[in-house]
Specification:
- The structure is a homodimer.
- The first copy, chain A, is of the alpha+beta class.
- Chain A is built from five helices and eight strands; from the N terminus they run E-E-H-E-E-E-H-E-H-E-H-H-E.
- In chain A, the strands form three sheets. Chain A has a three-stranded antiparallel β-sheet, with no helix packed on it. A two-stranded antiparallel sheet of chain A has the order 1-2.
- The first copy, chain A, is globular and about 50 Å long.
- The N and C termini of chain A lie far apart (74 Å).
- The relative contact order of chain A is 0.11.
- At the A-B interface, strand 2, helix 1, strand 3, strand 4 and strand 5 of A face strand 2, helix 1, strand 3, strand 4 and strand 5 of B.
- Strand 3 of chain A pairs antiparallel with strand 6 of chain B.
């Protein structure tokens, strides 16, 4: 066979550090057993002092069973001094921006691998504008959360700019965090006072 | 003056580690100069490999000027092996749950301080249910993000259970992250391909 009549099979199954064979195997597994797609993620939190609290991420449920991450992840959250905290960690709203960047970036790498595009650099900055007149209860017309979030990507890879832009567009179409932020999620709050 | 006719002023300005004088000073400052309430938070992200990427939180804008946290906070995000990652950090969607717990908890401590309730313990677990048939593109009727989020608090303090529950209710009413998750935020995505 000459190179031109070789079947269109990629000899390197891992692109951009992404194991595309495993990815397609996962998709096939869920396709054949849709209930395997039900996941529950969890975060545990313990108040420390003032606006300082500490989150722990360790356990989750997926593909029919209880699971744990390979290690327990611990994150402090706090407010900076200007917002009456001691800056022991980012503010909660900053974690939301981090989550959005992380989700769009992971998706983009997945999609690039599936499309055989080799990425060399992906950077982003997410900004969120918020008017504290809402959260401080000073103006009833101002919401508590962000009024606007903007994501700015810089992407380099072995494809035309148009193709690189399409990766971001497809990632946005399939992003869990983008969906959570742009389409509301019902939240139930329960309180136990032992 | 006898203790009974002393004015109702708290001699301990810091409750639950919260500097209530500073809190009220901040509220007053924004009341008199509403534009001081405009903040912009930011997260920067760099793709590492596969679903692994790294976020940095350092700079923000508030009360009229550029500011930086006392140190730069760095967070890895990744997928676990079962979701074709290498578990170098929590998944992006787990950071969202952490953000919600952190925001409700910080608010609760603020409100308890203002109401002169001394907290001795605040713990919470946030769970988010998600069906990956959405994100994997297998079922067009399934959304990409969480279908439901549940927050379970355990709170102890020197007030009746009813008063402790009211702290959570008021915190929810004033939570930026709760607002972001339950009421959509517009997100703009821009791409530069140098």
């Amino acid at each position: 066979m000459t190179p031109t009549d070789m079947p269109d099979i990629d000899v390197d199954p891992i692109r951009n550090g992404m194991d595309t064979a495993a990815l397609f195997a996962t998709i096939d597994a869920v396709r054949h057993a849709p209930e395997a797609g039900h996941f529950q993620f969890r975060a545990h939190n313990e108040w420390v002092r003032g606006t300082h609290n500490r989150g722990t991420i360790a356990d989750f449920f997926g593909v029919g069973e209880e699971r744990t991450h390979e290690r327990t992840f611990v994150f402090n959250a706090d407010h900076p001094a200007i917002l009456v905290g001691q800056d022991n960690g980012p503010t909660p709203v900053e974690f939301v921006l981090h989550a959005l960047a992380a989700c769009l970036t992971a998706g983009l790498a997945n999609i690039a691998a599936a499309r055989r595009i080799k990425l060399t650099e992906v950077r982003s900055t997410v900004t969120g504008d918020i008017d504290l007149n809402g959260i401080l209860g000073l103006d009833p017309d101002v919401r508590n959360g962000y009024s606007q979030i903007t994501v700015r990507f810089t992407i380099k890879g072995d494809a035309r700019p148009e193709k690189l832009r399409e990766l971001v567009e497809q990632s946005r179409t399939r992003s869990a965090v983008y969906d959570v932020i742009t389409n509301r999620v019902p939240v139930v709050v329960e309180v136990d006072t032992p």
